[in-house]
Amino acid sequence: MYHAKNRGGDAYEFFEGDMHERIEKQLQLDHVLRTGFLEDRFSLVFQPIIDIKNKSSELFEVLLHFSHPDFPNVSPAEFIPLAETTGLIRPIGQFVIRNALLHLHALDNQGDARYSLTINLSPRQLQDETFVGFLHDQLKDYRISPGRIILEITENSLMENNSRIEKILEQIRELGCLIAIDDFGTGFSSLSYLRRFEVDILKIDQSFIQRVPDDEADSNLIRGIINMARELGIVVIAEGVEKKEQYDFLIENGCDMAQGFYFSKPVKAEHVYNNKINY
Ligand code: C2E
Ligand code: MG
Ligand code: MG
Q1: Residue ranges per domain, the chain?
Q2: In what helix (H) or strand (E) does residue 275 lie, and over which residues does it extend?
Q3: Per-residue pLDDT tens for 180-232?
């Protein structure tokens, strides 16, 4: 059933031999994640997002990290979708918000309060009616002004349950946090949501960035996105910048911000303050 649902629903799937193996693996991972949560195996890392014009980086994306000897390189891209189906996303999501704000609060105490964070939200978190209240309380507890927090959502989560999501996004805006579209260009959606939801930031998916400047179609697409966003007053962040040629292309075409291994890998909280960035 879940395989059919993952294909977008309205479909059927036959049970096959390798599914059994995959399900076993998922059950094992689910168990490891649940016990890992109690054993403090989750932590946060921070990837700088570069302001291309000012050559500065005061914005960081918060990324979840899971450390376990049996699953050494398991990415959130693998375990977040699983946590969504099992409900574990709720405590994990709260952990991310609480700890991200706690780290920001600690940085505030260490120096000036110039840093801002982008935090990823999965579709199910956006369905949770207690989410905005929780975020509000945490912002208050850590004395963080809401404008320093950007919530990243994907295009696909906008499509899931439109009126409910619309309400939650409105509440997030009322609270004063900003909204970014993550992995822009990979989802199925109509661009009209850019107007309807008052999006602040578009993050161009790394799959497009990978192929510039050699691929003409992708290069044109990125130029188009940058120009469209500028007309709409939306800030553009390029994701997954790994090479100098890609960075040069973005500078040349007036992209606002960028992140990727070229500048810096995600770092632990204690390195945010003195992280060396390759501009
Ligand atoms: P994302 O939000 O698009 O995050 C960017 C991913 O690309 C991260 O992978 C990051 O480590 C990786 N990345 C950054 N720069 C480069 C680069 O130059 N090249 C390449 N190849 N990759 C780069 P990560 O940490 O494995 O996260 C994967 C996805 O998991 C994220 O994609 C996001 O959708 C999700 N995720 C991560 N943390 C959280 C979280 O706290 N909550 C939720 N709901 N989802 C999260
Ligand atoms: Mg993201
Ligand atoms: Mg992304």
Answers
A1: 1-36, 41-273
A2: none
A3: 999 999 987 778 888 888 899 999 999 999 999 999 999 999 999 999 999 99
The dotted CATH code for 41-273 is 3.20.20.450
Tokens 């059927």 belong to 12
Q: Give CA–CA dist 71/254, Å, rounded.
A: 40
Q: Please give the Cα distance from 164 to 276 (Å, whole number).
A: 42
Q: Which tokens belong to 24? A: 């076993």
Residues 6+ apart with CB under 8 A from 196: 166
CB contact set of 152 (below 8 Å; sequence gap of 6+): 61, 118, 119, 120, 121, 180, 181, 182, 203
Distance 127 CA to ligand 1 centre (A): 21
pLDDT per position as a tens digit, 94-118: 999 999 999 999 999 988 789 999 9
Rounded to two decimals, the pTM is: 0.94
Please report the pLDDT score of residue 5 as a whole number.
76
Question: Measuring from each residue's beta carbon to the nearest atom of ligand 1, which residues come in under 6 Å?
Answer: 47, 63-64, 75-77, 80, 96, 120-122, 152, 182-183, 206, 239-242, 259-261, 266
